[in-house]
Design goal:
There is one protein chain. This protein is an alpha+beta fold. The protein folds into two domains: about 1-45, no CATH class; about 45-120, no CATH class. It is about 40% helix and about 10% strand. The chain has a four-stranded antiparallel beta sheet with strand order 1-2-3-4.
Length: about 120
């Protein structure tokens, strides 16, 4: 580990509690990480969508994309369809963590629009 990363690791707890610009640093690091993940095509592909609340705890749901399963046939690549990329909507709240079905998500979108005066 470099001396810079060692210093940051050792002092991270203090900075989180005392430094006035820690929220700004955390936001910058989060944006840089997401940008690097997008450029390198690594990490979770997620979509925070339209801020639709979880039916359990009201935390905005997050869409997780999963890459297609690779073909496992012995003569791979055989061209068989593995179903393409799949996705699901999950609550990011660690205490909840609910995975919402497509039907529940559609209902949550309708309820969100209805409650915000945008549905007719």
């Amino acid at each position: 580990m470099s001396s810079t990363s060692s210093f940051l690791t050792i002092n991270l707890s203090w900075a989180a509690q005392h430094h006035p610009a820690f929220d700004e640093l955390a936001g910058d690091l989060h944006r840089m990480r997401r940008r690097l993940e997008a450029v390198t095509k690594s990490g979770d592909a997620i979509d925070r969508g339209g801020r639709i609340p979880c039916p359990e705890c009201d935390e905005p749901l997050v869409r997780h994309y999963v890459e297609p399963r690779p073909c496992t046939h012995p003569n791979s690549p055989c061209g068989c369809s593995q179903g393409g990329r799949s996705d699901d909507w999950q609550c990011p709240n660690r205490g909840c963590g609910r995975v919402v079905t497509d039907r529940e998500y559609a209902f949550a979108v309708w309820a969100f629009l209805e409650n915000n005066g945008k549905a007719s």
